[in-house]
């Protein structure tokens, strides 16, 4: 909608984790290096954790995009898989037929497939996204899969990406064997204020923007304060800011323009009313547990039991509220567009009468 107005050739803040938009912030660069280091080691597990929207899937996709020949990769995004389902899914991702086969048939076929790859001078990589959803026994199955070896070299390597809940899972007492196989782990932090600005500028230019600076430095600060440097939030907010700018025919954005949009989206981004954050979160100190073994077993995995009725009721109420918000937002947008059309029509009538 606003692309033409700002001279863009695509939408700069799409939510799809598109590798061509990859911005190498300090933490993204570091996580990418760990993954590449892991690849060069050709064994063990690499674990990347980070909050929702910090860029884990984007990193995985960028890695797959830049993957060297000779590595056959498969990516799984896991709902709660049982060990058997995991084995099935891994096999089908590597295009091994699984229909009607027993687990031990599938494991046999998988080993055969991996051995054949090895004979062709290739190896296999499994990227497991949203790995915090995996039950402990499924992670253990993953470890078993990494036991397949040929001449002392593992045939399948796995990378795990997941939200913070993954850390206590891996720290569980019975995960010791898995832990010993972790080559490196890294936690993705949000962007710093400077990176937030650089990220926005990078995405705008990548989408073809070539005009003057669009945002004042106060506007950038406001964007950072509201999004706390989380790329997914930045994308959502920026998309709305550009839409607002187009509707209001703005050529540049100051703090007030950003503030107006922040007010509009605060509810949608699930912040309690009038609770737009004022202070950015203190920057997370780089934890040195980034390297190798996670801390000793202290945390406990969340129990996987059913939640009670009140929980689901509360969730449904939240969902209804969110849908109500979405509808009222659509109404607002339609009004905006009406206003814009009227404005354009008046200009048209005026120009016509000048003729
Ligand atoms: N380093 C990055 N470069 C470019 N875009 C990014 C980067 N990190 C995150 N994003 C964007 O932020 C959004 C959320 O990223 P995503 O990878 O889905 O997060 P996660 O998997 O951690 O929840 C996506 O729209 C993605 O395009
Ligand atoms: Mg993701």
From TrEMBL:
Residues 272-304 are annotated as: Disordered. InterPro entries: AAA_22, ExeA_AAA_ATPase_DNA-bind, P-loop_NTPase, XrtA-assoc_ATPase-like. GO terms for molecular function: ATP hydrolysis activity. SUPFAM superfamilies: P-loop containing nucleoside triphosphate hydrolases. Transmembrane segments: none annotated. Pfam families: AAA_22 (PF13401). Residues 42-170 form the ORC1/DEAH AAA+ ATPase domain. NCBIfam families: pepcterm_ATPase (TIGR03015). This is ORC1/DEAH AAA+ ATPase domain-containing protein.
């Amino acid at each position: 909608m606003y692309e033409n107005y700002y001279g863009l050739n695509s939408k700069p803040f799409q939510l799809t984790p598109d590798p061509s938009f990859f911005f190498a912030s300090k933490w993204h660069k570091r996580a990418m290096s760990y993954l590449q280091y892991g690849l060069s080691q050709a064994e063990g597990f690499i674990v990347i954790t980070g909050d929702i929207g910090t860029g884990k899937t984007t990193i995985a996709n960028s890695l797959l995009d830049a993957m060297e020949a000779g590595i056959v990769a498969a990516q799984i995004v896991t709902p709660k898989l049982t060990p058997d389902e995991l084995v099935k899914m891994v096999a089908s991702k590597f295009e091994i037929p699984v229909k009607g086969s027993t687990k031990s048939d599938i494991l046999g076929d998988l080993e055969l497939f991996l051995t054949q790859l090895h004979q062709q001078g290739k190896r296999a990589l499994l990227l497991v996204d949203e790995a915090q959803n995996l039950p402990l026994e499924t992670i253990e199955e993953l470890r078993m899969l990494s036991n397949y070896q040929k001449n002392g070299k593992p045939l399948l390597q796995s990378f795990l990406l997941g939200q913070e809940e993954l850390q206590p899972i891996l720290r569980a007492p019975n995960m010791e064997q898995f832990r010993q196989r972790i080559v490196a782990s890294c936690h993705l932090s949000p962007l710093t204020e400077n990176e937030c600005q650089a990220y926005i500028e990078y995405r705008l230019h990548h989408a073809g923007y070539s005009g003057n600076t669009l945002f004042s430095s106060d506007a950038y600060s406001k964007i950072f304060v509201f999004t706390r440097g989380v790329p997914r939030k930045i994308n959502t907010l920026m998309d709305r800011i550009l839409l607002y700018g187009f509707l209001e025919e703005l050529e540049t954005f100051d703090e007030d323009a950003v503030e107006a949009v922040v007010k509009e989206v605060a509810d949608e981004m699930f912040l309690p009313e009038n609770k737009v954050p004022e202070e950015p979160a203190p920057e997370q100190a780089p934890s040195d547990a980034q390297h190798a073994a996670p801390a000793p077993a202290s945390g406990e995995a969340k129990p996987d039991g059913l939640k009670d009725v009140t929980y689901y009721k509360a969730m449904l109420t939240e969902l209804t509220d969110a849908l109500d918000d979405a509808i009222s937002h659509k109404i607002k947008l339609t009004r905006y567009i009406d206003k814009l059309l009227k404005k354009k029509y008046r200009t048209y009538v005026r120009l016509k009468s000048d003729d």
